[in-house]
Amino acid sequence: MRILFAPETFNLGETSRAVEVARAVRDAGHEVRFMGYSRRFADHITSAGFDLELLDPELSEADADRLIAVDQGRAIRHPFTTSMIRERVRSEPALIERWQPHVIVIGTTLSLFISARAAHVPLVYVRPLAMSRGHLTSMTTFPLVMARGGLGSAVNRLAGTATRTAATALRWKPRSFRVVAAERGVRLPDRTVDALDADVNLIVSAWPVPSSKLADNEHLVGPVYARTDGELPAELLEFEDRRRPVVYVGLGSSARRSSARSILGRLAPMDIDIVTTAGRYLTDDDRASLPANIRVYDFLPAHQLVGLIDASVIHGGEGTVQTACASGAPFAGIGLQPEQRFNLDECARFGNALRFSTSDVRRRRLPGLVERRLHDEGMRQAARVLADRIRDLDGAAVSAAHIIDLARETAPDH
């Protein structure tokens, strides 16, 4: 079987998730190829030994930042103009015609909802539970505000009802997608939630989800998070004999320089060692201004930090949260958009994590939150229990099995 993976390669979590599933497909003896539009995290694909075709039009760094801002609700204007979607829907069918994939696996590469349907190639969407169709149409609460009291909880319940109602009724789609779909003879589903559905949707949640809360074409596969090759820097192995706590700060691909500087600045005076992969957000002057207890990297195989760290401070992306859970150490997480807040709230309910906000950073509450992660034995025990559960699950292998089965069922020559 030939499987084409098409994550949006400006998104680190989405790209690393696709790489893990692609490894499992390749290990099962099938052909894999990647496509993308951004160079930002393309090296994560090629360094894993996969072929990658960067298609036109290339997504600029500015456009990638705009898409992240839209995702977080900080902006409403997106770069998906009619001309951009039209050009994408020229590039994608050309690759499909040339390579003839049996299945296409996407993240949020929305143009393939047109191209794959026009080419009659089955589409698989590997995605978090949060904001999926099943989640949207069954949700009872939406994390609009930090629910630290009865009023906050009531607001979030009202927001959940409004979101659930809108999800079942909303029929809006960007004009650029409607126009190009019509040009290609593709009729997009009427409801927005249906238009964002693939033939098979693989839900990469680490939490048990009742089948009643999943749509008919959604399958719970378990956690999928980056387990990249490579070794930790030798200096980090010193922490095996550490004399004070070690805290990992990982902000993924959706933070900003200001938030990275603020979080590191608040933690720096603590009597801890800090390891961070927020280097991509920092200038040379920023790095030079940090104290010696902070070690800055652009990237680390974070799953190898198990046993070396005592707590984490992270954003709330599904992959980053799952990596933190697998570490067996409690964490504090900042939700930069609704999906991330849902992910963090699940962990907060389990007891291994706590969600904080930019207001907490601004008001200098973060050190106290981290101190609690380091010394709350109940939270540390919950983290160990969850880590044991996650290590027994292999969402990438389960995802690969679903993808291969779909390819075999739909392939015209099988």
What does this structure look like?
The protein is of the alpha/beta class and 414 residues long. It folds into two domains: 2-223 and 394-410, 3-Layer(aba) Sandwich (Rossmann fold), CATH 3.40.50; 234-391, Rossmann fold, CATH 3.40.50.2000. It is built from 17 helices and 13 strands. Strands 3-2-1-4-5-6-7 form a seven-stranded parallel β-sheet, with helices on both faces. Strands 10-9-8-11-12-13 form a six-stranded parallel β-sheet, with helices on both faces. The chain is globular. The protein starts with a strand and ends with a helix.
Sheet having the most strands: 7 strands, parallel
Strand content: 5-15%
| Number of structurally distinct domains | 2
Question: Count of helical segments?
Answer: 17
Low-confidence stretches: none
Strand elements, count: 13
Helix content: 40-55%
Q: What is the averaged pLDDT score?
A: 93
CATH superfamily of the largest domain: Glycogen Phosphorylase B
Q: Based on Cα principal axes, name the global outline.
A: globular
- Strand order in space, largest sheet: 3-2-1-4-5-6-7
Which class do the helix and strand fractions yield? alpha/beta
User: Which CATH top level class of the largest domain fits?
Assistant: Alpha Beta
Along the chain, the helix and strand elements come as EHEHEHHEHEHHHHEEEHEHEEHEHEHHHH
State the separation between the terminal residues, measured CA to CA.
10 Å
CATH fold-level topology of the largest domain: Rossmann fold
Keywords: Transferase
InterPro entries: EryCIII-like_C
Domain Erythromycin biosynthesis protein CIII-like C-terminal: 262-388
Pfam families: EryCIII-like_C
